[in-house]
Amino acid sequence: MRQLFIQRAIFNKNTNDIMIDYLKTISFEELIKKRNICTFGSIKENSSLLDIFIHLVLCECMLYQNIHKIGVISLYGKELLDYNLPTPLIMSKTKENFNEAIGLLKKLDIAVITFYENLDFHSYNTEDFSRKDNFKDNTPATFMEQLFVHAIHHRGQISQILSELGVGEDFSRFQKFGVFD
């Protein structure tokens, strides 16, 4: 099971790196252009590509912090645990915040790989994926699965918008973004 988690974390890192490279090629005006985008369970008419990216990054950091808070034993990055998440999980649309989100995601990607390399599988119930009414009360297994599927969902949105702009490619192609050289 450990190798599968590591493999999925490496896949996320690889696709995030390529997604970031493509996002950097488009103008800031395109990054902040208003679009109809689904985040937080509903379509938002005033969202942007940058909003999706920042949402992806901040939610990933929140999930990482929640896994730590509920007592899953592993090796964690202190800087990420201490990162002060905004409430709500949004940032203003500036180039500085775009660059901050890129740096945060790159640190998270490495930290998640390290987390799975050092995970104590006896420190949580590996079979309980139940969801709670209060998101922060979800099980460790649910949070860990969300680390993967949440990013995949939003990379799909980003990939679609980038393709409409004539940039990038489909981030789901495992053979291109594989985990092993």
Tally of helical runs: 6
Structural class: mainly alpha
Give the radius of gyration. Answer: 16 Å
Give the fraction of residues assigned to helices. 55-70%
The end-to-end span amounts to 21 Å
CATH class wording:
Mainly Alpha
Query: Mean of residue pLDDT?
Result: 87
Largest sheet entry:
2 strands, antiparallel
Task: Return the CATH topology.
Answer: Four Helix Bundle (Hemerythrin (Met), subunit A)
Question: What is the CATH-assigned architecture?
Answer: Up-down Bundle
- The SSE string, one letter per element, is HHEEHHHH
What does this structure look like?
With 181 residues, the chain is mainly alpha-helical. The protein has helices spanning 2-23, 28-32, 49-69, 78-81, 95-117, 140-164; strands at residues 35-39, 42-47. The protein has a two-stranded antiparallel ribbon with strand order 1-2. Strand 1 (35-39) and strand 2 (42-47) form a beta hairpin. Helix 1 (2-23) packs parallel to helix 6 (140-164), helix 3 runs parallel beside helix 5 and helix 3 (49-69) runs antiparallel to helix 6 (140-164).
In short:
The protein has 181 residues and is mainly alpha-helical.
Draw up the topology in text.
Elements: H1 2-23, H2 28-32, E1 35-39, E2 42-47, H3 49-69, H4 78-81, H5 95-117, H6 140-164
Antiparallel strand pairs: 1-2
Helix pairs in contact: 1-5, 1-6, 3-5, 3-6
